[in-house]
Amino acid sequence: MVDSLLITIDAAPASDSWGFVGRVLVGEYEAYRTIRAYTTPGEAVDATQQLVGDVMGSLLAGQEWRSTEREVGHAPLRSELQFGLAARKRLPDRGDA
């Protein structure tokens, strides 16, 4: 039984031997290989990391929006999303007064 599964980003030689591609591996499974080839392995890794970060950010933002919308029953207001400095102020503790 596997306790954890790692998602790894690395680089490999391009199949046409013209540079390097970025790879995304889920465990030992190669889930994605970049379409573009890059001059160095570092460039391939950087581009792939940016791609995965952009996709994960979009997915997470969408999920957070949908969760908040379900929680409040409508499109969330700025105050419900806690935007701005005023939304983050703590109220004084009234327990010991």
How would you sum up this structure, described in words?
This protein is α+β, with helices and mostly antiparallel strands. It has one domain. Helices cover 33% and strands 20% of the residues. It has one helix at residues 41-72, and strands spanning 7-13, 20-26, 29-33. The chain has a 3-stranded antiparallel sheet with strand order 1-2-3. The longest helix is centred in the middle third of the chain and has 32 residues, at 41-72.
Structural class: alpha+beta
Distance between the termini: 54 Å
Low-confidence stretches: none
Mean pLDDT: 88
Shape estimate: elongated
The largest sheet, given as strand count, sense and whether it forms a barrel, is:
3 strands, antiparallel
Summarize the structure.
The chain has one helix at 41-72, and strands at 7-13, 20-26, 29-33.
Key traits:
97 residues; alpha+beta; 1 helix; 3 strands; 20% strand
Secondary-structure blueprint of this entry?
Elements: E1 7-13, E2 20-26, E3 29-33, H1 41-72
